[in-house]
Amino acid sequence: MSRVSVQQQGVVKMPGTPTYPKESHTLALIYEALAAAEDMATCRHTDQLTAGFAEPRLHHLAKGLNRLAAVAGVHVARTSYMDAVESFRYDLFSKWTSVGMVRSALQDPAAFDSAYSSLQDDVSRELFDWFVHVRVAYATIGEQALTLYPAPIGREDYAKVILSLGKRTPEGYRACKWIIDSEPVAIVDSMLREQYSLPGVVEAESGDVVLDIGAYKGETALWFADRVGPEGLVLALEPGLQTGVVLRRNIERNLSAAMASIGVLQYAAGAHEGPARFIATADSSSTVSIEGDVTVAMTAVDAMVVEQHLGRVDFMKMDIEGGEVDVLRGAEETLKKFTPRLAISVYHKPHNLPDVVALIRETHSDYEFRLSHRSPGLGGYRLVRSCLAVEQRPLDRGNGMGACHPSEPADCGGTMPGMSMAQSVAACIISYNPDAVVSRVVEAVRRQVSDVFVIDNDSAQKNRAWLAEVRNDQHVIVLENTENRGVAGALNQAAAMALDRGFKWLLLLDQDSIPPSDLVERLMREATDAVCLEQVAVLCPVSIGPDAAMPTTMTAAVMRPVDSAMNAGSVVRLKAWQAVSGYDEGLFIDYVDCDFCFKCRQSGWTIMEAQDVVMVHAAGSPTRHRFLWKRPLTSNHSALRRYYITRNRIILYRRYWHFAPLWIIRRVYHDVKEVAAVVLFESDRRLKVTAIQAGVVDGLRGVTGQALPERSSYLEGKDG
User: Does position 222 have pLDDT exceeding 90, yes or no?
Assistant: First the structure.
């Protein structure tokens, strides 16, 4: 390749690309980097070719060995050769973004030139040159690009900062005055190297309202809260459910009175409001993508500012894996109205830098642009912008309800405007030949919700007297079915009635499980404090048996996602019930709750368990037995129930083997132990074994619905 510069050559023509003007600064940088990369690759290639000349015997010996080793698919190589190969390696993210940037710059050099001309100082312009040089080189020679064009901070210096964190404790790493549960790189970049500020130029100041978009595990939110002080406010947006739990735990552990309030909003930010697919399994690289594995709630900054009643926004940080341009499109009014200082990552996608600059210049012409880079690699490249004139106005939190103070959580789908939490929840009790306990269940739940729906599944006449008593309460709605609709059918009836009356949540209760007096309040409060309710389909307590000891210690996370939730004591979002077409009435009774939870999870919803809310629930008529040194528990379900339990388990295993394989493996292990306990300890074991066998056969055949009359009469008649 000729070493003639773009300026000397006049115009440049490359196959498949248009003619470029000679004055393009970006093209000059590209050709300089290509020339330098060619020189380095040539030198390395020559070194490899001549390496054998110094030791010809060893060279020939290696060739002979390789002829033999080739039979086994093995190749013998010198250490020096392998070192050279290793030095030209690359990671896929850097390779993709580098190749993409070169392609983008060749197609549209004017956009990159415009971004360059917008930079305000020599340091930023030098970083732009380095950015283009190293990206072009990385696209051709991999990691050697960082040898050819070293980053502003060396790897050894950066490693020393990482090592300064010391060993991880069970709670996390100690960084200055904080203990953070996160990765060392995230802690160092955000808290120690302060990558989202240019001191004296663009930084969060005392009393600022800060939007931390892409808060991850709270490193930046805490750093901002410390900088802006108690007069300020930080809103942290992070859509990841698991990440959000860690984020809140870090905030609870480290937030002090000398810091700003931090509100956590479990949203992805984008150009508009609505659901979005999200890759939640990539840790700090998790991002909104059509290939995402979960569905999350997405908001636009403009809408969020209105929703939170913010009187101003002073600083916005965006680091969301390439979604920065979309966020800016959804923040145009915020930029025009408040002119906040900005710190935005611009290295995630090939055309991020020119796109971000162009979009901000279109929205507000008074911004100045600077570049910052505080990483030893290609990541960590930030575009920071300062406004020529920003008037610092007093903090205005509107009516005080939307500022997302920890004691005043934002409404993320819990209730409708003007509706209290209790008014948004109804309760459902399904009865079938109940005993006297059911009246106590109604009494216990009536104080916690607005309406109670009692669905009776064609109980015997002698077991219906209690229904006349509860009918006297205008907030207890009784529906008496003329046939047994099963648990699934009755739940669908109650959900439809609750939805028609404007309720958003439905509490599910068995006829023999008395709920704690504060069950609804605690479930909703804990969930609102820990997660964004917009993504939650089911909230459930910890379920324990009547003879189990009450938990004395809880996990660090108050709310945790679970595979499924038992109906008794769970609160179901009616929007989710509607979205997945309700409960499967073909299952009739057992595993209806589990199937519903799996359908919700497949549709992007989550199931959350409150670790410090306990519900006592008896499965069947449990009894303990002595067997050697163990005390196994049996449920003593009837033979007919054994049929339903077994059949529906098999149906769920076939239905969800690809979605929940680990759950199925655990359940099969539990099934084996359960059947053994039935055979060893329960009464009517022969009939129950027959019921289990029939359940296996019908489950494999896909039989659903209520058991055939002849089978029901046989199993019930012999079972007593």
Answer: yes
CA distance 238 to 242: 10
What is the DSSP pairing of strand 209-213 with strand 233-237?
Answer: parallel
Instruction: Give the distance from CA 13 to its chain's centroid.
Output: 47
Work out the burial of residue 431: count CB atoms within 10 Å of its CB; fewer than 13 is exposed, 13-18 middle, 19 or more buried: buried
Distance CA 472, CA 329 (A): 56
Q: What is the residue extent of each domain of the chain?
A: 6-148, 195-387, 414-618, 620-720
Q: Which helix (H) or strand (E) holds 262?
A: strand 261-265
Which amino acid would we find at residue 185? V
What Å distances lie between residue 360 and 85, 317, 368, 384, 516, CA to CA?
42, 14, 10, 12, 54
State pLDDT tens for residues 250-308. Answer: 998 898 888 999 998 888 899 988 888 887 776 677 778 777 777 888 899 999 999 88
* Element housing 272 (H / E): none
Q: What CATH number matches the domain at 414-618, 3.40.50.10960, 3.20.20.70, 3.90.550.10, 1.10.1040.50?
A: 3.90.550.10
Return the number of other C-beta atoms located less than 10 Å from residue 411's C-beta. 19
Please give the structure tokens belonging to residue 208. Answer: 């600022």
Average pLDDT of the residues in 54-62: 63
Instruction: Give the fold, CATH level 3, of 195-387.
Output: Rossmann fold (3.40.50)
Q: What is the DSSP letter of 82?
A: H
Sign of CA dihedral 637, 643, 649, 655: negative
Residues 6 or more apart in contact with residue 145 via CB below 8 angstroms? 37, 98, 134, 135, 137, 138
- Contacts of 612 by beta carbon, 8 Å cutoff, 6+ apart: 522, 526, 554, 558
CA dist 589 and 644 (Å) reads 7
In sequence order, what are the residues at sequence separation of 6 or more whose Cβ sits closer than 8 angstroms to the Cβ of residue 180?
A: 172, 173, 187, 191, 217, 218, 219, 222, 250, 254
